[in-house]
Specification:
With 312 residues, this protein is mostly helical. The chain contains 12 helices and 2 strands; from the N terminus they run ααββαααααααααα.
Length: 312
């Protein structure tokens, strides 16, 4: 048997198939990375909340859970390169998202780097049939992947704040009823945390109660909650409660007034969104709906004019 045809076939496969060796290596590397991330996510599967000394903690996001074998070593090296103001800004955003206990500034920065690398690998694999991707395309893919965690975190913060504003009137009503029945503020918060619906506000009340059990002053625990949520409504409520406690005033009228004010603000936000809806729908109507409608309406007319020879 002559081995020459076999060697010629191998040469033609590597030279005439149109797939550069670099693209093949990139595809293999992407497959290995995806397999490692999938295996890490499978091994790191845990319940939705993990119990710790500080109470139940939320589950880490998907990227930081699946990419833990790559993120954790990278975070150990990136920690020394993060500036103090950058670390403070990241921690502040994570605190407002309720994730400061499960991610941390170093792991968040490492996750952004990993997301940028995944973007480069994905674009390289997708571009491999046409050759090697241009440098500016790889840079754009890496930058997009690097910025996606920031966009996700901003959406999570906004979603959490909306949930807090939606739940706040109900919790204030529960606390008011508990105070009017003769309980103090700490017991009223405990009743609200036990009977209230699950959500970010319930988690914050539970954290305030844990701080109180640990010996923290009530005013400091409430101020810490207001700083974590960073909402004017919660800040106004905390200020009113602290002033009432310092002056010895009755809490029930203050809580009832706060609940009524928060409910009115909720209706005002709903009215504002309802008034903004037509303006937000104007651009989709002009770009997508109206051209299709005009095309459907004018098609029979244009067809008739073509058949009769009016349009040539």
């Amino acid at each position: 048997m002559n081995p020459a045809p076999m060697s010629a076939g191998l040469v033609s496969f590597s030279g005439d198939s149109g797939l550069p060796m670099l693209a093949i290596v990139a595809a293999l590397a992407a497959s290995v990375v995806l397999a490692v991330l999938w295996l890490a996510g499978f091994l790191a599967a845990r319940p939705a909340h993990t119990q710790s000394a500080a109470g139940p903690q939320p589950r880490p996001p998907l990227l930081w859970r699946w990419g833990a074998p790559l993120i954790d070593p990278l975070a150990a090296h990136l920690g020394a390169w993060l500036a103090a103001h950058t670390r403070f800004a990241i921690l502040d955003r994570l605190r407002r998202a309720g994730l400061e206990a499960v991610i941390g500034a170093d792991r968040y920065a490492a996750g952004k780097v990993l997301a940028g690398a995944i973007g480069i690998v994905v674009v390289s694999v997708a571009w491999s049939p046409a050759g090697v991707a241009p440098f500016f395309v790889l840079c754009a893919a890496g930058g997009l992947g690097f910025l996606l965690p920031d966009t996700w975190l901003s959406d999570r913060i906004a979603q959490r704040q909306r949930a807090v504003l939606r739940e706040l009137p109900f919790y204030l009503d529960v606390i008011t009823l508990a105070v009017e029945s003769g309980l103090n503020l700490a017991s009223a918060l405990s009743q609200a945390a036990d009977k209230g619906p699950p959500g970010p506000l319930r988690q914050e009340f539970e954290r305030v109660l844990r701080d109180l059990r640990a010996g923290r002053v009530r005013a400091e625990a409430l101020r810490a909650m207001a700083e974590r949520l960073a909402l004017p409504a919660v800040g106004s409520l905390v200020s009113a409660l602290i002033v009432a406690e310092q002056q010895g005033s009755a809490l029930a009228p203050i809580l009832r007034a706060q609940a009524e004010q928060r409910r009115n603000e909720r209706f005002q936000r709903a009215e504002k969104l309802a008034m903004e809806a037509p303006v937000k729908m104007l651009l989709p109507l002009l770009v997508f709906i109206f051209p299709c409608t005009f095309a459907v309406l004018l098609f029979p007319i244009v067809g008739r004019m073509l058949m009769e020879g009016w349009l040539k």
